[in-house]
Here is the input.
Amino acid sequence: MTDSPLTRAAEATPPHLARRIKGLSDRAIAWIFVAPTIFLLLAINIFPLIWTIRLSFTNFRANRPNREVEWVGLRNYERILTDSDIWLNMQATAHFLFWTLFFQVLIGFTLAWLINKKFRGNDLWTTIIVLPMMLSPAVVGNFWTFLYQPQIGLFNYAIEFLTGTPASSFEMLGSVTLAPWAIVIVDTWMWTPFVMLICLAGLRSIPDYIYEAAEIDRASKWRQFWTITVPMVLPFLMLAVLFRGIENFKMFDLVVQLTGGGPGSITELASINLKREAFEKWRTGYSSAYAIILFVTVFGLASIYVKALNKVKER
Amino acid sequence: MTGFLKGLARLRRGPWEFLATCLIALGVVMLMQPFVLWAFTYSFIVTLIGTVMFIIVSHFPEGE
Here is the structure.
């Protein structure tokens, strides 16, 4: 008998267990293996989702569990979708989402393209660039708060050095016009390396012979970039956008640490507002409806995105 | 255009998925646009219809 991993596994199985398994079909054994995962999925994902949908039609408050729960129908949804403050939160989320994705894709792809060129110290630069991604959002939020300080912050001095604007004349986190950009800058700084790594994987998966064939056909570098590099990296790039898009749609920790949603509520993203409704005002039914609205939006977007991704991969 | 309508009438996946995708995209734009409140109000129902439609039509047969 050969000493394969399969035979070793068979020999290691206790005899009483082996006797019991022998009577089972392959399908039954497969179900035994899959069942714990399905159970966990149902308990951790599906049940809370169904429970949240149910709560969204009630006026339940988690801080008053003994109070009688009233069925309010669609009233929670109606109140959320006619609330102009929540509308402003959605606009803040859209601003954050659009600009972070735009900058992260642009800078991430450029960095990946540069790192992919063979030069000395290539690996060292890759390590240095990916460092921000490895930090905790709480740490990043804290030290960027210091960097943005108008009196002692390095960021303001860098801007003064580059543009001549006095460092103490503007406050990134305290200004209504600058605060939304301040959180975009920090998220871009932190998560561009992630997009870069995914793009780098895409760039390294392109075989050299395709470029060599293009060279033989006398295709210019510009043409090679648009007809070889971009189409072949596109599925990877789309994957990065999907991950970052979903993550940024529910962005919470970094922004809370930086601005706490302020000044006023100019950087109060949907998830921050949702947390306030759920755990500060304790309007559980209302916040459940809010969460369902966000969930349907992300789910819808993710569905079309995955479809588009598959189409690009099929090409 | 005729092919698209024929696909819809024959319950083919492609055109129906396209329609569902447009509805989802429209719903998201309505949710996040800064211009009119009524669009925000009806955004959820548009996104929900699009998403449910997308799930259903993904099981339709492919067009020839």
